[in-house]
Amino acid sequence: MKRRSLTSVDDLQTAGLIEAAEAEGLRDVGSRYAIAITPTLVDLIDQADQHDPIVAQFVPTKDELVQTADENADPIGDHAHSPVEGIVHRYPDRVLLKAVHICPVYCRFCFRREMVGPKGDGTLSADALERALDYIRAHAEIWEVILTGGDPLVLSPRRLAAIMQGLANIPHVRIVRFHTRVPVVDPGHVDQVLVDAIRSSGKTTYVALHANHPREMTPEAKSACARLIDSGIVMVSQTVLLKGINDDAAVLTDLMRTFVEWRIKPYYLHHPDKAPGTGHFRVSIAQGQAIVGALRGTLSGLCQPTYVLDIPGGYGKTPIGMATISAQSAGDYLVEDYRGAKHRYTDG
Ligand SMILES: *Cc1c(COP(=O)(O)O)cnc(C)c1O
Ligand code: SF4
Questions:
Q1: Cystine design at 90: which of 81, 122, 138, 267 (Cβ 3.0–4.6 Å)?
Q2: What atom of ligand 2 comes closest to residue 112's alpha carbon?
Q3: Of all protein residues, whose CA lies closest to atom 6 belonging to ligand 1?
Q4: Which ligand 2 atom sits nearest the alpha carbon of residue 150?
Q5: Can you say whether the dihedral through the CA atoms of 244, 248, 251, 252 is positive or negative?
Q6: What is the pLDDT at residue 103?
Q7: How many other CB atoms are there within 10 angstroms of residue 47's CB atom?
Q8: Is 303 assigned a catalytic role?
Q9: Residue 330 DSSP label
């Protein structure tokens, strides 16, 4: 029988992941933010590790009830850029298509934590999906459609194939991209039927895998990614920089190398967003820059993610790694090598 995910404070207590004494205090967290941990992840937890990275990412804590004044239910301004339900159109050439607001796991630091989950924005109805596709059809500048949410790979292969069929018939859409955690948190779900559904638009298809710690990178997850890649899908990674989990150059080195060894190109390292009750996960930008700076030069260029901040308010993402070039005067620069030595460069 397929084991089910842990989805409540009671489930967590029964599984021995929280103490009875803690459970009471966590009910408020559980009633506010969705909880889910897949059997695959439960099996990865090392109960002897006080800083287990799986526990830290998925088991709720009372810190989530601490909300600071600058935290926001919509930290990256999705709603401000949503012309029709299910679409976020912030950049000219690409849109998010949020068909579902369910995830196989609920990350405690989630930037869309007020929108995802059983009490979140819900799944697009057939009519709403048709209106979203109409919007894409009507905007010839949309070159890429990014399926996110929620996790689009929780949709049934049939539903996914129907969406892909809609996109297949829009000539100006050239790229379909999925953002997902499924290959890592439920690798067995990535079977041939799902892979075929993902590819069924016939468009060039990218899958961005969200993973944050080398402990998530199991042989089963590797096989799931290989099934996607071997079928012609290109994979990239995204990682959220998280205090106490991966704010460490050695951990990120291991993670980025694993991605590359699996044929997944590191894409983004996200500075954590100011979602409500996530302050305990946030590092400072100076810390982030120091960690990313330590990777530069010591780690293959293939392994370098771009460190980005999603500017609060919906202004989009911007690279925030330490600048390695500064202009002294017009056309006259100082550039810094990976050891920190400065060199002069002049134009012309
Ligand atoms: C992150 C994001 C994208 C994708 O940005 P890329 O830099 O292309 O990865 C697109 N639209 C919205 C609204 C986003 O938040
Ligand atoms: S998988 Fe993504 S959308 Fe879902 S809870 Fe985690 S961060 Fe949020």
A1: 81
A2: 8
A3: 317
A4: 3
A5: positive
A6: 97
A7: 10
A8: no
A9: T
The per-residue pLDDT for range 247-268, each reduced to its tens digit, is: 999 999 999 999 999 999 999 9
207 three-state secondary structure: strand
Give the number of whichever ligand sits closest to the CA of residue 76: 1
| pLDDT tens by residue, 86-105 | 999 999 999 999 999 999 99
Q: How far is CA 27 from the centre of its chain?
A: 26
Instruction: Return mean pLDDT, the chain.
Output: 96
Does the beta carbon of 291 lie inside 6 Å of ligand 1? no
pLDDT digits (tens, 9 = 90+) for 290-303: 999 999 989 999 99
The domains located in the chain, with CATH, are: 9-65 (no CATH), 79-323 (3.20.20.70)
CA of 339 to the centre of ligand 2 (A): 36
Best substitution site from 98, 102, 151 to test ligand 2's pocket, by max atoms within 8 Å of Cβ?
151
Q: What's the burial of 56, exposed, middle or buried (CB within 10 Å: 0-12/13-18/19+)?
A: buried
Which is nearest to 345 in space by CA: 326, 323, 318? 326
Q: Which ligand is nearest to the CA of 38?
A: 2
Sheet containing 87-91, strands listed edge to edge, beginning at the edge strand earlier in sequence: 87-91, 94-98, 144-148, 175-180, 204-210, 234-240, 264-270, 306-311, 316-319
141 CA from centroid of ligand 1 (Å): 15
pLDDT at 78: 86
- Tokens for 21, please give them: 């004494």
Question: Tokens in use for 157?
Answer: 């292969």
Is the confidence at residue 119, as pLDDT, over 90? no
- Looking at the CA of 147, which ligand is closest? 1
- pLDDT reading at 1 higher than 80: no
Residue type, 178: F
